[in-house]
Amino acid sequence: MSLFWIKIIAILTMAVDHLGVFVFPENIYFRIIGRLSFPLFAWAIANGSIYSKDTKKYLLRLFVLAIISQIPYQMVFNSYGVTDPGLNILFTLSLGLLGIIFIKDTDNTIIRILIASILSFVAFVINANYGAFGVLCIISFYRFFGSRIKTSLSYIFLLLTFFLILPFSVSKNVSDIFEMSYMNFIQMFSIFSLFFICAYNNKIGHKMKYFFYLFYPLHLFFIFILKLFVF
User: Fold this and answer.
1) pLDDT, tens digit, for every residue of 116-128?
2) Sequence-separated (6 or more) residues with CB below 8 Å from residue 49
3) Where are the domains of the chain?
4) 131, 123 in Cβ contact below 8 A?
5) Contact criterion met (CB below 8 Å) for 19 and 223
6) Do 87 and 128 meet the contact criterion of CB atoms below 8 Å apart?
7) What sign results for the dihedral spanned by CA atoms 74, 76, 79, 84?
8) What is the predicted pLDDT for the residue at 171?
9) Chain CA centroid to CA 25, Å
10) Quick one: pLDDT band at residue 175, thresholds 50, 70, 90?
11) How far is CA 196 from CA 4, 5, 129, 133, 187, in A?
12) Residues 4-19, buried b or exposed e (16+ Cβ, 10 A)?
């Protein structure tokens, strides 16, 4: 499977997920399908960091798009009564890519761990979508790029740590566990994204760079219009 088709699956499952959040919140299947999107985006960032001719320009484009996309992101959440949705996923992807750029410049394991920890903490503090988990996924996908087994195991480890072990270990009572278990359970379906990642054939496929860049803010604006005039 080429990079093009992995990106297509990523944006389509993301769109389905957002329709599930804003238009069909009672339908769990939209959210389950949507769990595939983030790991695919995270892996695509790692892929791009390896094959990009200029990763710093790549980061700049991603960060500028993150700032622009925050406007429709905020608009669509506000239209559904959410006043503070945090920062959109492109900020998380930017932090992950920034981590890769820093890590490329050093062979020191301690410094690499420190960089990943600091950027993960930043993602948590600024309330970026997927937070520390998201940043660590991107960095681990880069670190183990080319190894299907290590890539899969690292993602499963992070998934279980952030969505099962840590949440349940800090739960004070049974009601807290049941309250958080719904989305945590759904997040487990993101494991199926590994099938697409492992099917990568090292080919780029069709080049539609600007389509993928524009899709994120435009699909959010479309959902906002949908809410305004239809629902």
Assistant:
1) 999 999 999 999 9
2) 55, 58, 97, 100, 101, 104, 142
3) 3-229
4) yes
5) yes
6) yes
7) negative
8) 66
9) 20
10) low
11) 12, 9, 22, 20, 17
12) ebbbbbbbebbbbbbb
Beta-strand (E) ranges in the chain? none
Which DSSP string corresponds to 100-152? HHHHHT---HHHHHHHHHHHHHHHHHTTBTTHHHHHHHHHHHHHTTT-HHHHH
- Phi, psi angle pair for 208, to nearest 5°: -135, 55
Rounded CA gap, 128 and 138, in Å?
Answer: 14
pLDDT 10s digits, 188-226:
999 999 999 999 999 988 888 789 889 999 999 999 998
Token pair for 99: 């981590």
Name the 3-class secondary structure at 87: strand
